[in-house]
Amino acid sequence: MPEISLLEPMVLRGVIQQFTAPQTMVMLNKLPKTPWPYPTATWDVIAGSRNVARPNVPNSEAHIVPQMGRSQISAAFIYIREKKIFTPTLIHWIRTPGEIAARNAEQLVLRETQDLDNRFNAFAEWACWQALTGVMNLDFEDVQATVDYKFPTSHKIASPTVGWNTATPQQIKADVTAWKRLIQRDGRVPARQAFATEPTLARIIDSFSAVPALLSDRMKDMYYTQGTLPGFLGLDWQPVEHTYQTDAGVETLFLADDSLVIGNWDDNNPMEIFEGPTADDDAPDGYTGKFTKTWKEPDPSARQYLMEWNMMPVITRPEQFVRVADVAP
Q: Does residue 255 belong to any structural domain of this protein?
């Protein structure tokens, strides 16, 4: 009996391309993916220009002005390559005639394929949040590396002067205003969004609730019904509560409690995910993005399914972000 269509390489690759990351993976859904055909990821770090033009007179040569300040970062792609082995039970289902057997086989393959794709997505989401700290540290059994995203020191805040667990509304407002001004001054764009966990947002609500007039009815309603604070202090505050689980079974938040990221992800395309060329010899020439393949092992009888991805989150305008490590030290 012919094998199920999902195990055909072209069909399987097409299915993978149709998968979407869960909505809880905020950065993976937010950031554009850029094909990068070179073996090393290289990107410019651009500093916002603060200079003004100089007046001139008619019929004279134009003033020559310097190019925008920039530096360049190069880093090897983060190479992910994992596989699953389909059980002999699946092989039996494939070979068993009948509609029910075929459906069982399709569902199992699809479920296991989706799980592998979710693992890759979770790693990419983790890498994006790590990049937003200013430095990504890769400390794994097979890979140890550090990528410095050249965040200005002033954009990496250890903690506010007064912890938000005891701060007054005026002190919290002063902190947020100062961080927004950093982005406006250095990045030359307005800060638009803030990401934090629910306990961090609760610290704001607890402080401001002491002065009810400082919170509009709409903001209170949005917080208590949806957990968001749209427009509060000029920012759209979004809760980030999703977690990942390590192979050791440790449940970890992508964005830690009491840490905070404020920034502008919309103007100047400041952050994206580079997708590099696949390293697998079976991939088409110049192929970038997630690559999949499947093959049979004769002894023991099994079907193996492999996925690989060369990826790297890049930040070209670090001045458009501020990371606060701990608002309640």
A: yes
